[in-house]
Amino acid sequence: MAASCDSLLPLVLLLCLSAQAVDRSNFKTCDQSAFCKRQRELKPGQSPYRALLDTLELSNSRLSLQLINDNNKVRLLLELYRLQGNMTRVKINELKPLKPRYEVPDVLLSHPITEALSVVAQDENSLVVSLGGKDQRLILSAQPFRLDIVEGSQVLMSLNSRGLLAFEHLRTRKDTKSESEQATGQENVEQQTDEDGQIKEDDDKPGMWEETFKSHTDSKPNGPTSISLDFSLPGVEHVYGIPEHADTLKLKNTDGSDPYRLYNLDVFQYELHNPMALYGAVPVLISHSTDRTMGIFWLNAAETWVDISSNTAGKVRVISSEAPQTDVRWMSESGIIDVFIMLGPKPADVFTQYASLTGTQSFPPLSALAYHQCRWNYNDQEDVKTVDQGFDEHDIPYDFIWLDIEHADGKRYFTWDPSKFPQPKEMLQGLMDKRRKLVAIVDPHIKVDSGYKIHNEIRSKNFYVKNKDGGDYEGWCWPGNAGYPDFTNPEMRTWWASQFAYDQYEGSMENQYIWNDMNEPSVFNGPEVTMHKDALHGVWEHRDVHNLYGLYVQKATADGLIQRSEGVQRPFVLTRAFFAGSQRYGAVWTGDNAAEWGHLKISIPMCLSLGLVGISFCGADVGGFFKHPSAELLVRWYQAGAYQPFFRAHAHIDTPRREPWLFGPENTALIREAIRQRYALLPYWYQLFYNAHRTGQPVMRPLWVEYPDDFATFSIEDEYLIGKDLLVHPVTDEGATGVTAYLPGKGEVWYDVHTFQKHDGDQSLYIPVTMSSIPVFQRGGSIICRKDRVRRSSSCMENDPYTLYVALGSQGSAEGELYIDDFHTFSFEEAKQFVHRRLSFSANTLSSRNLAPDSQFSTASWIEKIVIFGGSQPSSATLKSADGTESALEFEFDSTLAVLTLRKPGVNAAADWTIVLR
Amino acid sequence: LMFLGTPVEIQRPRGVPLTKKQFYEESKPFTCLDGSRTIPFDRVNDDYCDCKDGSDEPGTAACPNGSFHCTNAGYRPMFIPSSRINDGICDCCDTTDEYNSGAKCENTCKELGRKEREVLQKMAEITKEGFLLKQQLIEEAKKGQQEKQSKVTDMQENKKQLDEKVEALRTVKETAEQPEKEAKERHLKAWEEQKAAIRLEKDKAKMAETFLELDDNEDGFVSVSELQSHAELDPDADGTLTEIEAQGLMGGAEQVDTSTFESVWPKIKDKYHSEVSREEEPAPVETPPDEVKEPVVDNDSEPYPEDDISEEEDEDDEDEDDYHEDDDKVSAQPTIKTPEKTHEDEEAMPPYDADTQALIDAAQKARDDFEEAEKALREMDDQIRNIEKELSFDFGPDAEFTYLYSQCYELTTSEYIYRLCPFNRVSQKPKYGGSETNLGTWGSWSGPENNKYLLMKYEQGTGCWQGPNRSTTVKLTCGKETVVTSTSEPSRCEYLMEFTTPAVCQEPANIDPSPHDHVEL
């Protein structure tokens, strides 16, 4: 939860009382962030940078040369790499920085695999480098310096074409400067260097050597260090990504407003539809047009702002004679320029390319994809038991119950409140007996208390982040005065991970998992409710590593969960802060939203944006965290949440209780039904997560990802696809009596999964809705496996049979997959213990074929039923088993809906089989 | 019966209760219990759902809406949703729901049965005793109610008399007040006349005195020049009394004698300053006394309590101002300029004569008598209202909750002392100092429809920050004693209190405490 008011000091409380929504004055605008203001004052024009072609060095896979800024004679080093999978890496650093500049570690999986580069042409002002296949080339212009990536005669992307490359070089602090000189700031200071000629310092501007925001002063010992680079995307009107913002899926033009900000912050009661920073940051932007999909990955963990400018913004497309173009500009406060240009060309290619750099979504245990029941707070063990029983009494499935900060003894994480949770193992065992699980919160702020083991060890091992003067950094958070472990330190992370061992974390058991909140990090009394930028992580400033902190917290925690089971069990860790690569460690949620219809709506684009940049395991607090939802909003949110990847209800401590049965029997039934639909579809979700883990393809997808040529899909954010086979258009309007869903795909068909009704693609379809409606369509041409025997928890359904829903496409065929493993260990990876099958229907024959012949796993699950949409009535159905035996299957045919149901094939889900209809 | 022999399982498909056995005959095709279709009997419990109502799969998890019956010999039989069959969790104490899941279930029915019987027995004892207590409570309440009812009736009777008495005394009072009023008016009038005569006398004396004063040469005449020595008599207020002006005052005459002076006197008496008292005349006071006081009021050295102090002072000042104003009004009434003299002149009204006084005394007594009676009537009204209010409360169908009225019950937890005053309010007070918080005042009975007397609702307590007003639900259970047994706050600012009282004890059912076993034998 956010730095909400009720637990803070009375002084803060006064400030909070007046705040209805976010207090914007707590957070910087671009104008208030000195480097952003400086950078943004620089307008497009001729770049002062010139490439020194005579410094060119070319090895097999690396091209380097120097750039000089003709205004101040500072030299930069440009490095270009061609990476496997159609990517180009562009790195720019100072040639000779006064001291090293920060390069983000631990985000890339490994050194990306490079491919040979060759110079194919060169003259006095340019260089042409072949990027391999499909006559893709990189053209480097020397003066002014600029890079163009072209395919044939078409320019795909240009760098520094607007001349906004700006690199504030490190410089010596002039401690001798008098106050008056600093104040006037007009004097140019000159500095001799041995060979580069004269370096002319930029004029000092306000905020270069010290910056004050509200009552906080940033001492900026290194002075100005910011960097910026512009990218032009000809032919592009639609860009996406750079989460996290509570904004539309398609990024907006930022001319005349603030740029999108990437700076992990704990924003109390965030507002919708603005570019303010939120809890996480993934500096990846995806561009899309009917021609091509590309990506830009700006690997920098410092405070970053992104300006988007499109020449078609606000214009009606057909009238514009000008070719569309979108310009993007990145600005970061420190570090280096290190950009990965992913050239697609298809959406799936960009996802693969990005996944090859930062990894794929971790494969969660199946139960983590089921329903989670959370509240700040379940008061005590008795409360946990009562809620658990409530689910059984009302026959509602759930897998996880969650404990927020009140469970710990005085917010000392890794402990239990002795009066409220005196017997945690008894409680956990009670849940285990029901095949259910628990998540307890462990936040990274550590109470400064000499009686607290965790604190004492961190202090004695010198693992805390330091303040600028070298002492342990301390700030206010839930427990009061708190220290912040330096998660950038690998030794610290190893130690942290060891604390999750069963013999270290007293009261913990194997069915307890972890939630990392407040890991932006949240510091109630810090600038912008986070850590001072001049705090120190070893030799690096917090400024350099800020957006990475949360990733490291989740990584160390997930490592701990893996280690406690000696590498056997898959972990489950939820985080609020994240960065590029966080997908490898677990789930994220959209933070402290509110019980408002707008927040329900925005949950779709927010999770879609995350999915586009690798983080598939995303969800929003069902019901809304702040405020009290109406029964209608709660029901609609359950219905929407049941079809989003991470499905957890959560509520603020000051809101009335809202367990699913507290809103009258009708609403209880509606919520039960929504959750049951989720459970029935778990095999599909699981298969999609396996796919995401293996390939990097998102689970929840914008329509354009699957229909990249259909311009009508490019801005759709009120419906989406799960995988490629289910289209969901949740009801997100109060009092709605219908929704208009766009069904894409010319010549395709879609089937309403509830009524089995068939609809043509490439149309907007009005669907009347009642309170029980969740408009969901299955794509014609797909086969989806479900477990229709919904039980108390996903574990209880482990061995249940599958029902195959075969939706025939217009050509009368369909395909799908079935993935099965033990649902919770790494055996699928380490011992290839899984079942992965291709199900296909064509020419009246349905068959199950092994997709992974070298894997092996035996399952008790079998095929219970096959439902075929869109077919005709056969005269017979014959099942051929692997051993050659044949048997006739009974079937029923509903001629009005053209639904054929095959009764009880009974074959094992892992077996080869064929069914022939005649 | 259970304890005498081993239960004999009567053959029937798994999960079917005895009561429905007749629908499942192995020799015949099975018709779904909703009649929707008929299937071969081998499709009953074949782990595939054929009937929409789930009736073909009573013993498997195949149907989403099915239910499974466990016999639970030794305990109580029950139905569970069929989704709980073979889910690895032991639901039926006889283990029959987990016949194929590998779950290691133990038959706990006997143990559960024993425990349940113990609990039931204990409950039965409590209920029995509680019910007896309840009968007493009902008796007492009825008695109390009757007493109160008859008291109210008596009081209403008394009240009627009191009403009459008040009316009678009002008449007496009014009768006595009429002659009193007349006598007082008479007395006042006589005094006014007397005062007028005295004032006339005094005026004459003053005129004579003035004549003598003005007649400086003592020739028995006041001349123009003699009058001119009194500049204050200047009619045009230019500071000098000219000869013509003085002559004007004297009606055109050069001099006037004592008798003619009578016509001059009215023109000058308002302005005339006596020569004798002229020097003693106090100088006009320009600054009002409260302004003089001001510096004393201001106290800059103590900034914090200044407001309070000056406020008080202001009030005092106002009081004084009022006082002065009244004084001024009094002194402004007489036409003569010297107020002190006026007081001396106008003596207090003489005491009433004996007759008048007698009338006044009589009237006063009538008034006192009347007021006393009226007060008694009011008190009587209050008492009646209170009793009627109490009688109007819903104390249960047999008034069994009456005894809780005007009582309070406390429970001390580790942090707080909770206090329940039924039909009044619930409150919470920190154990170690701090002020009391209202957790709700009496709202209504709010139990389920069949027995609303199982829950009490207290509402509109102290407001919560950013939240609702505090409220408390009190859950009543049967007990021998009247005690608050627990309190909790399941949701912010919504409290739950458990309260035992004999008043909710139901008449013990006069049957076997283990009624469930016979079904299976």
From TrEMBL, chain A:
<feature type="region of interest" description="Disordered">
    <location>
        <begin position="174"/>
        <end position="225"/>
    </location>
</feature>
<dbReference type="GO" id="GO:0106407">
    <property type="term" value="F:Glc2Man9GlcNAc2 oligosaccharide glucosidase activity"/>
</dbReference>
<dbReference type="InterPro" id="IPR030458">
    <property type="entry name" value="Glyco_hydro_31_AS"/>
</dbReference>
<comment type="similarity">
    <text>Belongs to the glycosyl hydrolase 31 family.</text>
</comment>
<dbReference type="GO" id="GO:0017177">
    <property type="term" value="C:glucosidase II complex"/>
</dbReference>
<dbReference type="GO" id="GO:0006491">
    <property type="term" value="P:N-glycan processing"/>
</dbReference>
<dbReference type="GO" id="GO:0033919">
    <property type="term" value="F:glucan 1,3-alpha-glucosidase activity"/>
</dbReference>
<protein>
    <recommendedName>
        <fullName>Neutral alpha-glucosidase AB</fullName>
        <ecNumber>3.2.1.207</ecNumber>
    </recommendedName>
</protein>
<feature type="domain" description="Glycoside hydrolase family 31 TIM barrel">
    <location>
        <begin position="362"/>
        <end position="688"/>
    </location>
</feature>
<dbReference type="InterPro" id="IPR000322">
    <property type="entry name" value="Glyco_hydro_31_TIM"/>
</dbReference>
<dbReference type="Pfam" id="PF21365">
    <property type="entry name" value="Glyco_hydro_31_3rd"/>
</dbReference>
<dbReference type="InterPro" id="IPR011013">
    <property type="entry name" value="Gal_mutarotase_sf_dom"/>
</dbReference>
<feature type="compositionally biased region" description="Polar residues">
    <location>
        <begin position="181"/>
        <end position="191"/>
    </location>
</feature>
<feature type="compositionally biased region" description="Basic and acidic residues">
    <location>
        <begin position="197"/>
        <end position="219"/>
    </location>
</feature>
<keyword id="KW-0333">Golgi apparatus</keyword>
<keyword id="KW-0256">Endoplasmic reticulum</keyword>
<feature type="signal peptide">
    <location>
        <begin position="1"/>
        <end position="21"/>
    </location>
</feature>
<dbReference type="GO" id="GO:0030246">
    <property type="term" value="F:carbohydrate binding"/>
</dbReference>
<dbReference type="Pfam" id="PF01055">
    <property type="entry name" value="Glyco_hydro_31_2nd"/>
</dbReference>
<dbReference type="Pfam" id="PF13802">
    <property type="entry name" value="Gal_mutarotas_2"/>
</dbReference>
<feature type="domain" description="Glycoside hydrolase family 31 N-terminal">
    <location>
        <begin position="79"/>
        <end position="307"/>
    </location>
</feature>
<keyword id="KW-0378">Hydrolase</keyword>
TrEMBL record, chain B:
<keyword id="KW-0479">Metal-binding</keyword>
<keyword id="KW-0732">Signal</keyword>
<feature type="compositionally biased region" description="Basic and acidic residues">
    <location>
        <begin position="272"/>
        <end position="281"/>
    </location>
</feature>
<feature type="domain" description="EF-hand">
    <location>
        <begin position="202"/>
        <end position="237"/>
    </location>
</feature>
<keyword id="KW-1015">Disulfide bond</keyword>
<protein>
    <recommendedName>
        <fullName>Glucosidase 2 subunit beta</fullName>
    </recommendedName>
</protein>
<feature type="domain" description="MRH">
    <location>
        <begin position="406"/>
        <end position="507"/>
    </location>
</feature>
<keyword id="KW-0256">Endoplasmic reticulum</keyword>
<dbReference type="InterPro" id="IPR002048">
    <property type="entry name" value="EF_hand_dom"/>
</dbReference>
<dbReference type="InterPro" id="IPR028146">
    <property type="entry name" value="PRKCSH_N"/>
</dbReference>
<comment type="subunit">
    <text>Heterodimer of a catalytic alpha subunit (GANAB) and a beta subunit (PRKCSH). Binds glycosylated PTPRC.</text>
</comment>
<dbReference type="GO" id="GO:0017177">
    <property type="term" value="C:glucosidase II complex"/>
</dbReference>
<keyword id="KW-0325">Glycoprotein</keyword>
<dbReference type="InterPro" id="IPR018247">
    <property type="entry name" value="EF_Hand_1_Ca_BS"/>
</dbReference>
<dbReference type="GO" id="GO:0001889">
    <property type="term" value="P:liver development"/>
</dbReference>
<dbReference type="Pfam" id="PF12999">
    <property type="entry name" value="PRKCSH-like"/>
</dbReference>
<dbReference type="Pfam" id="PF13015">
    <property type="entry name" value="PRKCSH_1"/>
</dbReference>
<dbReference type="GO" id="GO:0006491">
    <property type="term" value="P:N-glycan processing"/>
</dbReference>
<dbReference type="InterPro" id="IPR009011">
    <property type="entry name" value="Man6P_isomerase_rcpt-bd_dom_sf"/>
</dbReference>
<dbReference type="GO" id="GO:0005509">
    <property type="term" value="F:calcium ion binding"/>
</dbReference>
<keyword id="KW-0597">Phosphoprotein</keyword>
<feature type="compositionally biased region" description="Acidic residues">
    <location>
        <begin position="297"/>
        <end position="325"/>
    </location>
</feature>
